[in-house]
Amino acid sequence: MAVHLRPGEALRLWQDVAVTEARAGRPDLSMRQAAILLTIYLEPPPHTIRGLAARLNVSKPVITRALDMMGALKLVSRHRDESDRRNVLVKRTVEGALFVERFGDVIIACAKEPTTP
Asked: Could you give the percent of the chain with pLDDT greater than 90?
C-alpha cells in the first residue's frame, strides 16, 4: 500500500505520533531502539545480535545496549542459540507484540485526525 505525503505532511504526522506518545507516559524508545524493535517484529525471525547489527549498520555493543533497555521493559528477550552457543537469539514477547501493535494504532489514529498547528 503506497501512501503519498508531502514532506511537511509526513513530518506533521511524525510530530503528532511523537506528541501522542510523549503525552501517554509510556516508556520512550530512541529512534535506534524503535528501529531495532520494528525490525524484530516486522521481519521474519530468527534475529541475532550480529544480524541486527549488520541490518542497521551499527556495532554489536550498540545493539546489546538497546536490547538491555528493551529487555528490562519486556519488549524482547534473549537466549543462547542451542545449535551455536556463540549466537544470541533475540525473541519477541507478548508485551513487545502489544507495544508494537498499539504503536501502529497510534500512527493510524494520528493519520486519520491530524492536528492543526
From this structure: 79
The parts of the chain modelled with pLDDT lower than 70 are 114-117
Domains of the chain (ranges; CATH) run 29-103 (1.10.10.10)
For residues 54 and 10, what is the distance between their CA atoms, to the nearest angstrom? 28
Q: Give the pTM.
A: 0.88
pLDDT of residue 115: 66
25: left (phi over 0), alpha (psi -120 to 50) or beta: left
Q: Give which of 86, 85, 88, 80 is closest to 49, Cα–Cα.
A: 88
Averaged pLDDT score across all residues of the chain: 92
CB distance 56 to 38 below 8 Å: no
Instruction: Report which residue type is found at 2.
Output: A
Neighbours of 13 (CB within 10 A): 17
Tell me the residue type at 6: R
* CB environment 84-93: b (16+ within 10 A), e (fewer): eeebbbbebb
